[in-house]
Amino acid sequence: MLGHRNWIAVVDSAYPLQTSAGVETVETDADHLEVVKTVLDQIAKTKHVRPVIFTDAELKLVPEADAHGVTAYREALAAILGKMEAQSLPHEEIIGKLDEAGRTFHVLVLKTRMTIPYTSVFIRLECGYWSADAEKRLREAMSRQAR
User: Fold this and answer.
1) Range 7-146 classified under CATH 3.40.50.720
2) pLDDT per residue as tens digits for the range 120-139
3) Residue 54 to residue 52: CA distance in whole angstroms
């Protein structure tokens, strides 16, 4: 059911319950990295969407001394993402994007058992069979035609 402009967020257990009408939160009671992997595997099986991945910029700087296990988490997440690029933005900026998207589009938030801060993985779905470059060319052609 989800298509381009929808979001899927795999979040830690302290992630806030957002109140925008389009934001649906599901408590998974599951391992965070397993949920990330499952979601990405399911998206990979589709033809109609592709993932654009965002992670919290803060994650890179969370020290092991303050958040035991964060180093192993970063390594495991990097292994799951493989060659997929993840954009890094400040946490509050990403939450703002979800809140804004939730006003018009569906946002699925999957809460996990994770207890390390700034480990959320945010996935914006884009059209799988139409690229940003193709859209740009189409808009340019339409602009030329309107003149």
Assistant:
1) no
2) 999 999 999 998 899 999 99
3) 7
